[in-house]
Amino acid sequence: MQAGNTLQYKKYTCLVSYFNIKDCLTGRVLGMSQIPSFTSKTIEGIKGEFHRAVDDYIAACESEGKKPAQAFTGNYTVRTSPAIHEALALYAAQQEVKFSQIMQQAIGEFITNHNIEIPNREEN
Q1: Cβ–Cβ < 8 Å for 70, 58
Q2: For 104-115, what is each residue's pLDDT tens digit?
Q3: Closest CA relative to residue 50, chosen from 70, 21, 25, 67
Q4: Local structure of 121: helix, strand or coil
Q5: Cβ distance 36 to 52 under 8 Å?
Q6: Is residue 8 classed as helix, strand or coil in its secondary structure?
Q7: What is the number of other CB atoms lying within 10 angstroms of the CB of residue 90?
Q8: Which domain of life does the UniProt lineage start with (predicted)?
Q9: Helix, strand, coil share (%) of the chain residues, nearest 5
Q10: What interhelical angle do 82-95 and 99-113 show, nearest 10?
């Protein structure tokens, strides 16, 4: 995913792609299966559809008395081999830290080593 292919609105992120069969742009909100994908022929149109989809989702949640889900909660399941799982758990125990702290450190190092920009959000 290229940074130029995303839009931000109300803490939601949309990935925009070109769909050559229909000669249009498609958008989907990352991490939010509750919000359907959308299409438009223009950049301004896809921005409008993204805003409308997010606003409609938030309005539907409010009318049902539900809190809108966050796209990225900070919880993520990582699948790996049993051997890697065991090695990391053993390392965490030897260091007297939680397994999740080891994973957070590893992810942090990956982000640093790959110059990945973290969105500026007040939750960070």
Answers
A1: no
A2: 999 999 999 999
A3: 25
A4: coil
A5: no
A6: strand
A7: 10
A8: Bacteria
A9: 45, 15, 40
A10: 100
